[in-house]
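Good morning N.,

You mentioned wanting to compare the apo and holo forms, so I went ahead and generated the holo version with guanosine-5'-monophosphate. This is what I fed in:
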Amino acid sequence: MAMDDNCIFCKIVRGDFGTELVAESPNAIAFNDISPAAPTHVLVVPRAHVASLSELDDPELGAELLTLARTVARQTGVAETGFRLVTNDGEQAGQSVFHLHFHVIGGRALSGSMG
Ligand code: 5GP
Ligand code: ZN
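and this is what came out, ligand included:
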């Protein structure tokens, strides 16, 4: 599986830090953000190293990531109250970890701002 030795999320996928998983599927994992922006803030990440959504060339993996995000929303309860699913792609969007991830954010009223 594609892996980048310098990538923090590849290390989490590999289990280097013993990160507790919120949910998982064959090709993806979900874990709590280290610096949560809301009561629920979970990252959904492919096990393989893909830098960003722009670099994703496997539509089945895309579907699996969305499905796992929905599982996380149900499991954490935010599917009932409302949640936001976000990916920051590239520098101007503020992407800081260059391993594709979707943020599942909820558990409080979120601002209407989209940037
Ligand atoms: P981005 O800014 O790239 O969209 O989001 C990166 C996210 O990864 C940030 O919300 C940040 O708090 C989170 N993050 C960065 N390093 C770690 C880490 O080592 N562990 C976890 N759980 N989250 C991290
Ligand atoms: Zn990676």
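Helices lie at 8-14, 59-76, 78-81.

Happy to go through it together on a call whenever suits you.

Best,
F.
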